[in-house]
Amino acid sequence: MTPASWAYAENFVAEDDVLAAARARAEEVGVVPISPGVGSALRFLASVLDARAVVEIGTGTGISGLWLLRGMRSDGVLTTVDVEAEHQRLAKEGFAEDGIPAQRARTIAGPALDVLPRLTDGHYDLVFCDGDKREYADYLAEALRLLRPGGVVCFDNALWHDRVADPAQRDEETVVIRELGRAIAENEALVPVLLPVGDGLLAAKKVWHPEEG
Questions:
Q1: Who's near 144: CB < 8 A, 6+ residues apart?
Q2: Are 128 and 101 in contact (CB under 8 A)?
Q3: DSSP notation for 3-70
């Protein structure tokens, strides 16, 4: 794919002023947000799933949250977790600017691996992971518990700046993400796909087994 075609696809779904303002806040506080291509993919998945309950790891300034909420049901609730309460405050500004009722976005400040175990098993339609890359394997384990059968887990930065595809790259984050992809691809309880949008979006559907009810 040529750079021009990649850019065309990446920006195929245009962002509006609310998302542009959220991106400006991200730049101000040094947050690296998801790309428009990843955002539109998340909105698509949330819409296809008719998602009522979504977990997000890594609130940032609300860009991914805005995309997810726009794809979810009108009564859907996003639970978004971040270690930075100030970033969550900025995210709430964007949600308010988009006319999203406050009760539809539940922000929880704290480390993801402290918060996720407190959430309800089998309750969520979608789990989006964009937190500490070194914790991705732990996020997967939590997501599989949290998702309903047929639910989807997604990981941002699945290509990690072109490093994952290069076996010579052996830094900790690259290795963790590479091993995560291998584990998901080999897990017979998951239906995986790796989308070359943004910095790579790895998604997997949790297979429904009749014996599980």
A1: 153, 189, 206
A2: no
A3: HHHHHHHHTSS---HHHHHHHHHHHHHT--PPPHHHHHHHHHHHHHTT-SEEEEE--TTSHHHHHHHH
Angle between helical axes of 136-146 and 172-186 (0-180°, round to 10): 30
CB under 8 Å, gap of 24 or more: what pairs does 13-17 form?
13/39, 13/40, 13/43, 15/39
pTM as predicted? 0.95
From first to last of the 213 residues of the chain, give the pLDDT tens digit. 799 999 999 999 999 999 999 999 999 999 999 999 999 999 999 999 999 999 999 999 999 999 999 999 999 999 999 999 999 999 999 999 999 999 999 999 999 999 999 999 999 999 999 999 999 999 999 999 999 999 999 999 999 999 999 999 999 999 999 999 999 999 999 999 999 999 999 999 999 766 554
- CB neighbour list of residue 125: distance below 8 Å, 6 or more residues apart: 46, 49, 50, 51, 52, 53, 54, 147, 148, 151, 152
The two structure tokens encoding residue 115: 């918060």
